[in-house]
Automatic annotation (TrEMBL):
InterPro entries: Flavoprotein-like_sf (IPR029039), FMN_Rdtase-like_dom (IPR005025), NAD(P)H-dep_reductase (IPR050712). It comes from the Bacteria. Residues 6-134 form the NADPH-dependent FMN reductase-like domain. GO terms for molecular function: FMN binding; oxidoreductase activity. PANTHER family: CHROMATE REDUCTASE, NAD(P)H-DEPENDENT FMN REDUCTASE LOT6. It comes from Arenibacter troitsensis. This is NAD(P)H-dependent FMN reductase.
């Protein structure tokens, strides 16, 4: 029996009808034979980051999140851009991990799906570089004009977007295999 990779999908959007969540669900469904895929889409429920709690008295929900990241074979982040940046909920959860090594050398796929998304995508890549994750240009994807590419019921309708997602997923799988072989 083939070992399924444990993958955490983090949705940066605060909307329950987000195109970003639809993308993560699409990946989870299309890769269910290879990925044990858990989606985290409730970032607003995490406590606000406080530097005085980074080492002691860390909230239970943060401890559990860090453990999930540690145990994962890889992480996929799919997020919109809010005001030329990443959403506050996503930034908050990443800030809770800066003083740790939970993301260090972890294979990461980064998808920014928004109206434009360029600045948010740049910032996301910079943050992931800073916390020492492992990604390549092939495991990052900027999807502009996302509203016209996902239907009201959450289906990806744009053929080019589906093709780009397939390429990203294949590159992400190769990266997770390569890094697993090196450990």
């Amino acid at each position: 029996m083939k070992h399924r990779k444990k993958i955490i999908g983090i949705c940066g959007s605060a909307s329950q009808y987000s195109a970003n969540l639809s993308i993560l669900k699409y990946i989870a469904e299309s890769e269910k034979s290879e990925f044990d895929f858990e989606i985290i889409d409730d970032l607003a429920s995490f406590p606000q980051f406080r530097t005085e709690l980074t080492d002691k008295n860390v909230p239970e929900k943060i401890v559990a999140f860090r453990q999930k990241v540690t145990n994962a074979d890889g992480i996929l982040i799919c997020t919109p851009e809010y005001v030329f940046s990443i959403p506050s909920g996503l930034k908050n959860i990443l800030e809770w991990c800066v003083s740790t090594t939970v993301f260090s050398d972890k294979p990461i796929g980064l998808i920014t799906a928004s109206a434009s998304g360029e600045k948010g995508h740049e910032q996301l890549k910079l943050i992931m570089e800073t916390i020492q994750t492992n990604f390549t240009e092939e495991t990052t994807l900027l999807i502009k004009g996302i509203k016209s590419k996902v239907s009201q019921n959450g289906k990806i309708t744009d053929i080019k977007t589906k093709s780009e997602l397939r390429k990203l997923i294949e590159s992400f799988k190769k990266l997770t295999k390569k890094l697993a072989a090196n450990t």
